[in-house]
Amino acid sequence: MTFEEEARKKLDRYIGGTESVFREMRVNPPGDESLRKAVESNISLSRQYLADSKYYLDKGDFITALVCIAYCEGLIDACRNLGWLSYEWAFKE
Which range of residues forms the domain containing residue 68? Predict the structure, then answer.
């Protein structure tokens, strides 16, 4: 398998898993208004990183696409770790 084939396969997996999380996740907003805004901002930013990842994947820039999806996943995982989001990762093999 070439580098490009392997990169595309991994990115398809990560992007698909992340899209699934966005469809299934539940938001558990904190009571504090400023924290609630922070959650909304992080979700919005993570969606932008997802879109950027797909954009760069389409352009064949696999490294930038991987960096973008990693940022996206990191943001939503941080929110989940704080109890603000509920979801499970379900990656296809």
Answer: 3-86
